[in-house]
Amino acid sequence: MKEIAEEARTKGEMHNQLAAEHEKITKEVSRSIYTRRILEIVANIKKQKEEIDKVLIDTKEVQKEINQLSGKLDRTFTVTDELVFKDAKKDESVRKAYKYLAALHENCSLLVKTVEETGAIMREIRDLEDQIENENQKKVLGNLERITLDYMQMKQENAALIAKLKERAE
Q: Within its chain, how far is the Cα of 77 from the centroid?
């Protein structure tokens, strides 16, 4: 009877020891997984920040160029308008030139507006491409498969540990 009690006690101690090992393994596995995922997220954030910086630089350059050209266009029109208007009072052909100048200015303004709208559309396209790239990076199906495989592996490890516990308990 004492032998059976002694054996039960040693098996109980072994059970406790294996249960502690099981807990330790589970915690270590989850920590490494979390650490790896955090590092992946940090890398993605760095990459996104670099892309955002590139887009901001491009946008600033285009906006600066548009502003310079618009200012130059307005100054040139003002000077030309004054010069032609003075002569338009005296000569009929200069009056026609003045009308053409006004039409040219209007067309140039429309052109600048079109360039600005094209820039806005290009930014939207870039944003959509970035969104597509982000979705591709997520690789939802790949992640799901990896998580499923990890889960199955953990189940197998747990089953093996439980089998060892049962073996030692007998």
A: 44
What pLDDT score was predicted for residue 121?
A: 94
Q: Let me know: does 160 contact 6? Beta carbons within 8 Å.
A: no
First to last CA, the chain: 16
- What whole-number distance in Å separates Cα of residue 170 and Cα of residue 158? 18
The Cα 57–Cα 108 span in angstroms is 26
83-130 pLDDT, tens digit per residue, is: 888 888 888 888 888 888 889 888 988 988 898 899 889 989 988 998
pLDDT at position 1 is 67
The secondary structure of 96-116, three-state, reads HHHHHHHHHHHHHHHHHHHHH
Q: How far apart are CA 52 and CA 46, in angstroms?
A: 10
Q: Measuring CA to CA, how many Å separate 147 from each of 25, 60, 124, 150, 153?
A: 17, 43, 34, 5, 10
User: Does this model's pTM top 0.70?
Assistant: no
91 Rama class: left (phi>0) / alpha (psi -120 to 50) / beta: beta
- Tell me how far apart the alpha carbons of residues 129 and 72 are, in angstroms, rounded to a whole number: 34
**Within the chain, what is the greatest distance between any pair of CA atoms?**
132
The radius of gyration computed from the CA coordinates of the chain, to the nearest angstrom, equals 37
